[in-house]
Amino acid sequence: MNGIFKHLLFFCMMIVIASCGGNNTSKETTANTQDVIRVATPGTHPLFTRVNANGELEGYDIDVWEEIGRRLNKKIEWHQFALEGCFGALDAGKVDTATQQISITPARLEKYIFSEPYFLSPFKLYVVGTNDTITKLEDLYGKRLALVTGSATHEYIKELDPENKIEIISLRADSTATIPSNVVNGKAEAAVTAVTVFPDLKESSGLDIKMVGDILFTQVNGFPFRKDEAGQKLRDEISKVVVEMREDGTLEKLAVKWFGYNPMEGLDPKAELDKIMAKVNTNN
């Protein structure tokens, strides 16, 4: 009987240990999930988020997020989708946020909450090098302007051209590299892009294109989050780190690394964001 009792006691102890082990695994999984920030990006935007020759994501946004992860002691888990897919994945809870020089706009603020701005980006028109007839937006009335599908530039151009005097040709985000070709071959008379990106765009395309006119608008870039408790909590954590990185010079250092200078010098993130919020309040 003693032998049977010992075997039963041993068997019960093994069940308890296995049960405890299972509970620990569950807790570790939960903890690990909390230590990961899932970030979506198309990886198609030169100097900000793109895939290099080694198949790795690189760029200003990538470095910013890796530094955020380091400061929060969290792993950044990257997910690649087309730009529209990034927002779809965010809506579905598949990712926590998205990045690729994503602009804060009145329309997007209706659906998402945004972090503190991490970048400010002036935009201008560019045309084929032989075109001297277009120097301002009004010169495009009755002509075609190429924009990326789903990009914030649509909102900005709509605001600048409320009567739709310009014909918009919308191209998918993964076709960005073909936009300069459309401008050169005459399928569009002009396109618009960030001043910081244009030199790389011109060099990589090898095409005769040039920027013209004054700055059309300045985009305020931030990270979108869902409008729920978890989204707000993470947004607040990220915003705190972004402010720290702005104040300690990290954002400027990374900008110089990728662009050769600091495009944000002399620009006030709060003032630019206030302009957007003023539009939101006016619409409401």
Could you explain the architecture of this structure?
There is one protein chain. The chain is built from 10 helices and 13 strands. The chain is of the alpha/beta class. The strands form 4 sheets. Strands 10-9-11-8-12 form a 5-stranded mixed sheet. A 3-stranded parallel sheet has the order 5-1-6. A hairpin with a 5-residue loop joins strand 3 (49-51) and strand 4. The model is unreliable at 1-32 (pLDDT under 50).
Outline the low-pLDDT stretches: 1-32
Helix content: 40-55%
Work out the radius of gyration.
24 Å
Cα distance spanning the termini: 82 Å
Which structural class do the helices and strands define?
alpha/beta
Oligomer: single chain
- The tally of helices reads 10
String of helices and strands: HEEEEHEHEHEEEHEHEHEEHHH
Percent of residues in β-strands? 15-25%
- Major sheet summary line: 5 strands, mixed
- Strand tally is 13
What is the topology, as strand order, of the major beta sheet? 10-9-11-8-12
List the keywords.
284 residues; alpha/beta; three-stranded parallel β-sheet; 44% helix
